[in-house]
Amino acid sequence: MAAGWNHNLALRADGTVVAWGVNNSGQTNTPPNLTNVLAVTGGSAHSLALTGNGPPALTEPIRDPKWRDNHLTISLRTQSGRVYALEYQVSLADGRWTALPLVPGNGGTQILADPTAASAQRFYRVRQW
User: What's the CA gap between 113 and 88, in Å, rounded?
Assistant: First the structure.
């Protein structure tokens, strides 16, 4: 969520935006085809949306990370109806992420795993759809 001078913005889980409030400068006129939004912000007479490919990285805290015997596991609180993916890359300079198998949310804690973690030198993120 974000707030501007006289308006508010909400980023929906599906990557679309809802805006409401005073509309004297067009702040709440969201473009009809605005999708793949990753972040929103509002100013005095404007709204901004950052768009990109794919869903945003998850902001839910990762719990109980463990790495042993070339295997990484993490625990994550999930939502029913959502799907989660653990992704990794070996260098932050590399823009490509390797996705591991999808895990369905169940409204409780799920364990996401990387059974191919040959070294502890990987960078991870979790994505949610």
Answer: 11
Domain that holds residue 34: 2-51
Distance (Å, whole) CA 29 – CA 17: 10
The two tokens of residue 30 are: 């969201």
Q: Say if 94 falls within a structural domain.
A: yes
- How many angstroms separate the CA atoms of 68 and 16, rounded? 40
Encode pLDDT of 79-104 as tens digits.
888 889 888 888 777 778 888 999 99
Across the chain, the runs of DSSP E, i.e. the strands, are 2-3, 7-11, 17-21, 37-42, 47-51, 63-68, 71-77, 83-89, 98-99, 103-104, 109-114, 123-128
Confidence of residue 54 (pLDDT cuts 50, 70, 90): low
Q: What is the pTM of this model?
A: 0.54
